[in-house]
Design brief:
By secondary structure, this protein is of the alpha+beta class. An eight-stranded antiparallel sheet has the order 1-2-8-7-6-5-4-3. α1 crosses α2. The longest helix is centred in the last third of the chain and has 22 residues.
Length: 166
């Protein structure tokens, strides 16, 4: 099965759009994005590892995630959950931070992540609207797309392991 993947950068609107299809039920894909113990298993592009320092998935809650390099260097990011429509979408403010969630710079994105059920698939739509063009360009030149592809492939492996475990 060939799964849809689309990645578009609109520098004029300071936006990155991602559409990715997964061969799994929406409830399972939703859990993979919203439960720390699952998110930690797939979000980091190999050979990096993910560590979820804190995750409080509720409106007003937040998630502090570290991407840990093979050299054991951690880079942290913060997602602050603004609005959650269970099993359908969530809206967050995302930024880079230190281990205590203090911002590293002024760059951030307002991110909508939505989940569209299909017959045998779930399509995830991610729209990241950045506050400045410099942050968009840093994300693009810093390998965001490549890392995202690797993480999404990790999620495919995780979802496939659930099917084969049954």
């Amino acid at each position: 099965m060939s799964l849809l993947f689309d990645f578009t950068v609109d520098k004029e609107k300071k936006t990155i759009h991602v559409t990715r299809e997964f061969a799994a039920d929406r409830d399972v894909v939703w859990d993979a994005f919203t439960k720390a113990e699952i998110l930690e298993q797939w979000i980091a592009p190999k050979p990096f590892k993910a560590y979820i320092k804190e995750m409080d998935f509720r409106e007003g809650g937040r998630c502090i995630t570290a991407m840990i390099s093979p050299e054991n260097v951690a880079r942290f990011s913060l997602a602050e959950y603004i609005k959650i429509d269970p099993k359908s979408s969530f809206f967050s403010r995302n930024s880079f931070c230190d281990e205590n969630a203090n911002p590293l710079n002024n760059g951030f994105s307002l991110t909508t992540t939505s989940f569209e059920p299909g017959t045998d698939t779930t399509t995830v739509h991610i729209e990241k609207i950045f506050n400045d063009l410099a942050t968009v360009e840093m994300m693009v030149s810093g390998g965001y797309k490549e890392g995202l592809v690797m993480g999404m492939n990790n999620l495919d492996e995780y979802l496939h392991s659930l099917v084969t475990a049954k």
